[in-house]
Amino acid sequence: MALQPYDLFDVRSLLTEEERAVQDTVARFTDERVLPIIGDAFDQGRFPKELVGEIAELGLLGSSLPEQYGCAGLNAVSYGLICQELERGDSGIRSFVSVQSSLCMYPIYAYGSEEQRMRWLPDMAAGKVIGCFGLTEPHGGSDPANMKTVAKRDGDDWVINGSKMWITNGNLADIAIVWAQTEDGIQGFLVEKGMKGFAAQEIKHKMSLRASVTSSLFFDNVRVPDANRLPNVKGLKGPLGCLTQARYGITWGPIGAAIACLDETLKYTKERMLFGRSVAATQSAQIKMAEMARRITLAQLLVVQLGRLKDAGTMQPTQVSLAKWNNCRMAIDIARECRDLLGGAGITTEHSPIRHALNLESVITYEGTETVHQLVVGRELTGINAF
Questions:
Q1: Where are the alpha helices (DSSP H) in 90-236?
Q2: Over the Cα atoms of the chain, what is R_g?
Q3: Is 13 within 8 Å of 69 (Cβ atoms)?
Q4: Final residue belonging to a domain, choices 160, 194, 228
Q5: Domain shared by 284 and 341, yes or no
Q6: Which pLDDT belongs to residue 139?
Q7: What pLDDT, on the 0 to 100 scale, is given for residue 146?
Q8: What is the pLDDT of residues 13-47, one digit of tens each?
Q9: Could you tell me the CATH number of the domain that includes residue 155?
Q10: Which of 195, 228, 261 is the last residue of a domain?
Q11: Cα(60)–Cα(45) distance, rounded to whole angstroms?
Q12: Residue 144: pLDDT above 90?
């Protein structure tokens, strides 16, 4: 039997029947609904909001959360496969789902009250309420402990002042999960659209994640009732726990981007004739594409094991850092190499590698830069914190 070019080690055979069904469903959605429009959306700098309802109908929002909240109750590997197939379409689509699921719905589920869960999660799963996650600030995203946004208690309310930056879904959002310094440590608040003093401003002139909404958030004496405070966590472990969930999805997503780039490059190099033969018939092209397949295969094996560890409840943040570092670096290198193999045609968004390469500049940066994740692994090896 011939090997599948994007699954040389038959990683799919390691998946359960349900996991394969999830992957096939999301792959079909990406092929039929995302790929036909995403190039134009990227060119226009437009997030395709028309897809949100369909994404929700497929159960992709908060997919790992319990069914009692209107969610699909899928396992971690299934969530990873969702991220992989969506990012095969575009990082912006996967980012939308990651933020809604891991950075907004997860903290409400993990740190919120039952009343908060019942109020927000079913509508968020249905795509009726969109969330954003307010942690990063203008002066430095890699050091969240140096947070300047503050929340001060005033009777039964909290008054929030400060700002957040590089916030995915910011101008789409109906609620923002905002982390702020209080006298009792960092706490999370549900800030609702329309609250006086709360404003979102979309960040323009992006050359990456153009099919995604990225915003700055501003809080000028925003009064939030204590009922909107997440009661079950204090300190950095709250936002860092959310980031671990989101980073897990990001370890899978770039594999989809890399597969998309290799797929298009294989087809193009077979058709492109130079010096009397196809580019695919040259040793240099075959060596480059073989190297891509090798790295994709290693990344696939890495995330399946990571997913199994997560489902077993034994996954460690350092393991997530290693996988994000490896898989983002793998994908961005492959996207750049594919752009090169496409020659002049590779600089247009009629082909996906340049779009994926540009998007991956953000993916390799957000949720912890490559350097941060290298230092996390270094700390695990040496026991010495070099931050």
A1: 91-98, 106-111, 114-125
A2: 21
A3: no
A4: 228
A5: yes
A6: 82
A7: 85
A8: 999 999 999 999 999 999 999 999 999 999 999 99
A9: 2.40.110.10
A10: 228
A11: 24
A12: no
Contact by Cβ (8 Å): 132, 170 = yes
187 and 269 together in one domain: no
Share of the chain above pLDDT 70, in %: 100
CA distance 374 to 142: 13
State the pairing for strand pair 131-134/175-182: parallel
pLDDT of residue 2: 84
Residues 148/242/89/17 CA torsion (nearest 10 deg): 180
Confidence category of residue 142, pLDDT binned at 50, 70, 90 = confident
What are 256's two structure tokens? 């989809």
Active site residue 57: no
Please report how many Cα atoms fall inside a 13 Å half-sphere around the Cα of residue 162, on the Cβ side: 23
From the list 87, 367, 370, 380, the catalytic residue is 367
Structural domain span for residue 308: 237-382
Give the chain's domain count: 3
The reply to whether 2 falls in a domain is no
d(CA 289, CA 337): 9
